[in-house]
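Hi everyone, sorry if this is the wrong subforum. Our group has a chain we'd like a structural model of before ordering constructs, and none of us has done structure prediction before. Sequence below.
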Amino acid sequence: MQTLTIQVKDDFMTEFMKMIDTVKDNVVIQKDENLEYDPYFYERQKKLQQIRDDIKSGKTEMLTQKQYDKEIEQFFEKLESQYAN
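Answer:
Right subforum, don't worry. Here is the predicted structure as tokens:
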């Protein structure tokens, strides 16, 4: 069996379900709660996994909270100095 994600327009849902009913012995319909809460769940999950892999491989550096605080403070100081004039 293969899995597909199908988006159906609200006003077509009744007709779509009638079509599916004709092949119900060959099709299983299951709602994916992840997609109900966040339509981009799987794309975000994939991106997060890539970020984690990049951190583990050393391709991307993960800052400590202290490093982050220092960098963000320097960033705002730079902004303030640029726009102070």
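For your construct planning: Residues 65-83 form the longest helix (19 residues). The mean pLDDT is 92.
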